[in-house]
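FAQ
Q: What does a multi-component entry look like?
A: The components come first, one per line:
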Amino acid sequence: MRILSITERTVPIQSEIQNAYIDFRKMTVSVVAVMTDVVREGRRVVGYGFNSNGRYGVGGIMRERFIPRLMHAPAEALVTDEGDNFDPHKIWDVLMAGEKPGGHGERSVVVGVLDMAMWDIVAKIEGKPLYRLLADRYREGQFDSAVFVYAAGGYYQPGKDVGALQQEVQEYLDHGYTKVKIKIGGPPLQEDLRRIEAVLKVVGDGQSLAVDANGRFDLKRAIAYADALTPYNLFWYEEAGDPLNYALQAALSQYYPHPMATGENLFSLQDARNLVRYAGLHPNQDFLQFDCALSYGLVEYLRILAMLGDHGWSTRRVIPHGGHQMSLHLAAGLGLGGNESYPGVFWPFGGFADSYAVEGGYVRLPDTPGIGFECKAELYRLLASLSE
Amino acid sequence: MRILSITERTVPIQSEIQNAYIDFRKMTVSVVAVMTDVVREGRRVVGYGFNSNGRYGVGGIMRERFIPRLMHAPAEALVTDEGDNFDPHKIWDVLMAGEKPGGHGERSVVVGVLDMAMWDIVAKIEGKPLYRLLADRYREGQFDSAVFVYAAGGYYQPGKDVGALQQEVQEYLDHGYTKVKIKIGGPPLQEDLRRIEAVLKVVGDGQSLAVDANGRFDLKRAIAYADALTPYNLFWYEEAGDPLNYALQAALSQYYPHPMATGENLFSLQDARNLVRYAGLHPNQDFLQFDCALSYGLVEYLRILAMLGDHGWSTRRVIPHGGHQMSLHLAAGLGLGGNESYPGVFWPFGGFADSYAVEGGYVRLPDTPGIGFECKAELYRLLASLSE
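Then the predicted structure of the entire assembly, as tokens:
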């Protein structure tokens, strides 16, 4: 049982949108296809992976260091002791050999992308959808048959006024979402408040709306927004300050009475643990948004979830960033609180299986073996082009 | 005034050595040449940069994102308001446009390498060695005419016994170094103690020896080493645990009575500030080892030094990792405590200007404009090959 080839490509995720930090017109992602010598149901097993938006493709590092490590490893270093499947934990060790501790960025994306493809393969070889494999391995078979998802949008776009924002949000509700998230922090506070109040008219109440500052605020501005947001009692107030400024978050956690969310820009167990240790977050109230595709994959995510348990956090407080099917499987199979979704943007990566509509804010997963990229036609067309 | 071209190459730093984490046989570094349209003393001004050992070359990301940003920027975005020189601070903003906060690894190396080349250019255009330019800009002209350097070695190598280690250390003393550093944490504690005692016989006393665990220890092993090391009263005990495990460092800082050192694997202002906030280090006793070539360059380093000042740290407690000439200029021009040096390894990057021997543990800098790579023949041959 061995890997025959690994093909990667960097593709643009063309979009006119902007958040408070970046302009997505130049954003790229890496997609990868890992071809194996295993055949299941008459077809060669191929695993696919990609990274979520926001961090660019990482083809250079993948080709320079990580693909060669996998391709040069002896076959037995990549498979279970029984030799009946690939072992993502062993593969992780092979990928990270010769890497120093600290400095968790970019390479964490490479490992996230390759790890995704390997879990796709492992579940295909076992003939199960990934969420069932995870439930069987780590939760005594318990899984969620549908996962809470919220619609992340409300980006800034040239010429987009409050009416267009309301229309966008109405479309999310029409498509079955019950909670939505919009960006804040681009314009001045008063304009953001007008945007928020306009959206509240569409969604009905604060618990149906989250807001995301993308790490833009210093403490003063974060507090000014906290003051202004408090009366709305929002679903959450996300990433007010720099993701590594735990002291800012701790001050804000003391000050702001409602739920907060952060973590999408922390890419390792060590960083996640520092957040939990120092940021003053409330395990009974706040949300953690680590994204396996950016942070060394599911192997590291399992370590993060174990660490969270040690610190008294339920897996239900974890709602990953990224809006991809991989995290949807983690959510269903490991009992997370839900998953982000980008219904309108980051095409063809946003959204889930074509045949499963969001209903009442929840989405079901296909029973196809693996992650089920095959059930998302536009995405699969792109991924399959790598392995042809 | 503009950049005509940027050439980068990934080169191996072939070495049989190992530390407790990595095997350097596969280690690479990126070297870069930035060619300008400026002419000084009849020669075109070209700046050179490279990253320090331990983090691999970053050619892929450099080509994919960072070189295009510099080459596509309007000329005025890269130069001072007066237009009389390039402005590394403005260039930093151009390089980091479209980059999200957090995730400080790899790209921090890219920016470090390009920033080094740009400061080489800026100092060449001003016709000053970089340390004088820094002293003039940031320290009212005050500079150190020689910089403390210590010899970092004592790596593990196949077949290297205690006698060979003693011989290596004796060579450092013979070359003018007064303090040396050796690796610990590869073999069991008792063997490391035999190595330490053997080296102490050569260097004379504990204050002439530092030890470096390269982040390998959990708290239990870190404490066991602390117990064993305490009687030697060493110059410092470096990077006992994972560089991001501030809680481990804080426990150890309380426990171990003598100087400790860390920071080489923290690559941003945010990470450096977290270390200072949470790791319980002693500003009157400990050493910080941030390396500009790995951590967004001198522009970010100036922010880090300012942050350290706000937290009551003197620049004299900073002794950078990396053993390169760039940090030697920072040390002389910004009043740091010294610089690392790799006299025997990482050829041709280790060591400083050819004509300046280390004397009594200090080394002088050449008065050549720029960083003075031109005064290090073997290195310059490599760098110059990029701009031919």
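Q: Is there any commentary attached?
A: Sometimes. For this entry: Chain A has two domains: 3-127, 137-377.
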